[in-house]
Amino acid sequence: MLLMGPPGAGKGTQATYIAKRFEIVSISTGDIFRENVKNETPLGQTAKSYLDAGQFVPDAVTNAMVRERLEQNDVDNGFLLDGYPRTLGQVDYLDEILAAKGYELDLVLQLTAETEELVQRLLLRAERENRSDDTAEVIRSRMELYFNQTTAVTSRYNERGIVSEVEGLGRISEVSGRVSTTLDLMLGSSSGQSTIASARGLGRTLLV
Model's pTM, two decimal places? Predict the structure, then answer.
């Protein structure tokens, strides 16, 4: 499963919930980047050169980092992937990685919310955390960038008929309840343990 959602939609919170429910490792591409940069790996040094210049890290570098991470042993029982894929090229690359492991995507869970509601939520968070740089203009720019990046990705998965939308606004418990209901319906079980067992039995993995 792939979990998608714009900034402020609570994707990270729901990713943590799903990872705990299914007892699988949660992998953030942001964490992968930071780990590679911190350890000064060849990929990390290449990525840092782009980041320092204020540029996007090329797909080839991101893809290589994701592949290396997914070759580690802790993903053997399933994993959640957060922040990838963001481009059609990354979609194709992820398909290749999964096919090589005998896996395939079952579901793309997309958290949705009104943009202005998310802007107000992020402004409140910026105020609480004293993030003076997070202005409404900056937040709206991030929203636009997110949608520009991911619209084509969502369309590709829509063509496969595996996208399911979940309203991302409300109390955390309410959103988690909607997510849980959707997972049960799409994966065919009311029990997290039996659902993940079924998915593993099919040679599939869960991605967020």
Answer: 0.80
